[in-house]
Amino acid sequence: MIAQGQVVKVGIADMNVAKLPDTIRTSGLGSCVGVVLYDERLKVAGLVHVMLPDSSLGRVENINIAKFADTGIPAMIEQLKLEGVQPFKLRAKIAGGAQMFQFSSSRDTMRIGPRNVEAVKEQLKKYTIPIVSEDTGGNSGRTIEFDPSTCMLNIRTVNQGVREI
Amino acid sequence: MYEKNITSMHLDVLKEIGNIGAAHAATSLSTLLNKKIDMKVPKVEMVSFDDMMELAGGPDSVVAGIYLRIEGDVTGSMFFVLPVEQANRFIRRLVQDDHFDFQTGAVSEIGASAMQELGNILSGSYLSALSDFTQLNIFPTVPALSIDMVGAIISFGLIEVSHVSDYVIVINTAINEEDVPNEESVRGHFFLLPDPESFEAIFKALGVN
């Protein structure tokens, strides 16, 4: 791979957009889900680092929309529209939603990874955005990087190496 | 009782709490490893989630992380996070196996369980000191261990806080070993992340408004 662009970094509960020749990356996904929405022809991609499934879980007024699946994904679509993307052409790749620790507890928090994945899929279905590929669940952390020029999502884990989906 | 109402005096009180816990944990760890271990609380601050990851060494850095929940009058999350090299040194010393390595494939059961036990003893001594000092009931759950990216591990402890805020109050304890070169690059941490609704209980117990 010839590195010529910049890497656009997305923090936790954050989102951003990258265009060719740049790539876009988020690091250390655990129970969070990285959602990439892209337009193959325009070579534009947005990435949201979703931390919680539903903004009704937020107990404050001024919410950070990128934090929740139900607000982050619509906001990402809006932002991509500003880049000239037509929403019906969007495709998605998702990764994350791991269960980092296994131990018995009745707390909802323990199942937050799978719940995030479910919520993300529900939103994508609502906007009829097909999921081209996914790498979700398990119990490993992931660092992901999407390259709009190839539309490949590179996924790095500590224990299982690197793969592309 | 979060972000808007926390003053620098409150942070100082939390720092004092951290120092008391850290002093006890340092004594336990020094005894266990039979070497001098220094722990201190450099700062208690309210930081963004991303800054929290940086405090822990950057979201990508690989650590041995122990996570446990705190239950009782005060609830929250506690992490004992060691860079893998430092964890290897501690466990080699504890189980007397010079070849022990968390990063070479399957972690031997004895090593993993020694690490969990280490987390148990340290967090136990840390939290019992807090409990004595505040007269609050604080008890830890059984710790869980993960060798992984620090971002993936720590973000789990941010879930509770993330319901009400994008910032977290971190009681950060730095763990330093004596006689280890490159001290600044190798450093463990205790992170104590009380749930937002627990601050009131802590301050009330200490007579701080």
UniProtKB/TrEMBL annotation, chain A:
Transmembrane segments: none annotated. GO terms for biological process: chemotaxis. Pfam families: CheD. This is Probable chemoreceptor glutamine deamidase CheD. Its EC number is 3.5.1.44. It catalyses: L-glutaminyl-[protein] + H2O = L-glutamyl-[protein] + NH4(+). GO terms for molecular function: protein-glutamine glutaminase activity. It comes from Psychrobacillus glaciei. InterPro entries: CheD-like_sf, Chemorcpt_Glu_NH3ase_CheD, Cytotoxic_necrot_fac-like_cat. CDD domains: CheD. It is an enzyme of class 3 (hydrolase). HAMAP family: CheD. Keywords: Chemotaxis, Hydrolase. The keyword Hydrolase applies. Signal peptide: none annotated. The keyword Membrane does not apply. Belongs to the CheD family. Gene3D superfamilies: 3.30.1330.200. PANTHER family: CHEMORECEPTOR GLUTAMINE DEAMIDASE CHED-RELATED. Probably deamidates glutamine residues to glutamate on methyl-accepting chemotaxis receptors (MCPs), playing an important role in chemotaxis.
UniProtKB/TrEMBL annotation, chain B:
Keywords: Chemotaxis, Hydrolase. SUPFAM superfamilies: CheC-like (SSF103039). The keyword Hydrolase applies. GO terms for biological process: chemotaxis. The keyword Transport does not apply. It comes from the Bacteria. InterPro entries: CheC, CheC-like_sf, CheZ_family_phosphatases. GO terms for molecular function: hydrolase activity. Residues 9-45, 111-147 form the CheC-like protein domain. It holds the Pfam family CheC. Gene3D superfamilies: CheC-like. PANTHER family: PROTEIN PHOSPHATASE CHEZ. This is Chemotaxis protein CheC. It comes from Psychrobacillus glaciei.
